[in-house]
Amino acid sequence: MNTMTLWHLTGWEFAALACAALLVGFSKTAVSGANTVSLAIFAAILPARASTGVLLPILIAGDVLAVLTYRRHAHWPTLWRLFPAVAAGVLAGTVFLIWADDGMVRTSIGAILLLMAGVTVWRRRRAAADEGPDSVATRSGRLKARSYGVLGGFTTMVANAGGPVMALYLLSAGFRKLGFLGTSAFFFLIVNVTKVPFSAGLGLIDGTSLLLDAALVLFVVPGALLGKWAVDRINQRLFEQLVIAATVVGGLQLLLR
């Protein structure tokens, strides 16, 4: 795989990757979608395609910590409705990665994230009342779940950027803070583990990338603990604003690189 090893990194480069790993932990237990900043840091220091393979095990470590923290709050009917569409998106993303270059990947994902952020803000301003999680059982709810599921699967496969897409879906479905975090925790643990054989088959994960992961994964734990401390101090409105803001920042970073 075309990536740098731990010994090829400067001290500043490793420190930046360590901060990005810490932010992964924070995003998994506090502000989902914030790890798009981590994605941008990894892509800036490592070769863009290779960076997705290095980042995936770090994301899985964060997912495990998030599941341990919020496992009681997952809404499984929503998860079961999402998984078939997500699987289709992952397969489409795998095909896309076979022939797409880094520029195409960044531009596509950045545009999708900004579009989703705009649609979510528009929908929430129009809504007279919040929808509950059970709204996914309606016809429009099923259509929305499929649409977001395919986009979430596609973006998470090609750039580990599915977090903002699913965050926007859960917000638009009216999930409160703990239900949001519990549902997204199980969702991404299952999806990211499923992605491993696809990423390995594309050459994005190998012994070199895993060695770098071993050095970085230790920083995920303090980030997750910081997120757990912070989430109890963030009210629902601020929580939603932070999720949308992180999505916009991540989308702009991908488009402007």
From TrEMBL:
<keyword id="KW-0472">Membrane</keyword>
<feature type="transmembrane region" description="Helical">
    <location>
        <begin position="178"/>
        <end position="198"/>
    </location>
</feature>
<keyword id="KW-1133">Transmembrane helix</keyword>
<dbReference type="Pfam" id="PF01925">
    <property type="entry name" value="TauE"/>
</dbReference>
<keyword id="KW-0813">Transport</keyword>
<feature type="transmembrane region" description="Helical">
    <location>
        <begin position="82"/>
        <end position="99"/>
    </location>
</feature>
<feature type="transmembrane region" description="Helical">
    <location>
        <begin position="210"/>
        <end position="231"/>
    </location>
</feature>
<feature type="transmembrane region" description="Helical">
    <location>
        <begin position="148"/>
        <end position="172"/>
    </location>
</feature>
<protein>
    <recommendedName>
        <fullName>Probable membrane transporter protein</fullName>
    </recommendedName>
</protein>
<keyword id="KW-0812">Transmembrane</keyword>
<keyword id="KW-1003">Cell membrane</keyword>
<feature type="transmembrane region" description="Helical">
    <location>
        <begin position="105"/>
        <end position="122"/>
    </location>
</feature>
<feature type="transmembrane region" description="Helical">
    <location>
        <begin position="49"/>
        <end position="70"/>
    </location>
</feature>
<dbReference type="InterPro" id="IPR052017">
    <property type="entry name" value="TSUP"/>
</dbReference>
<comment type="similarity">
    <text>Belongs to the 4-toluene sulfonate uptake permease (TSUP) (TC 2.A.102) family.</text>
</comment>
<dbReference type="InterPro" id="IPR002781">
    <property type="entry name" value="TM_pro_TauE-like"/>
</dbReference>
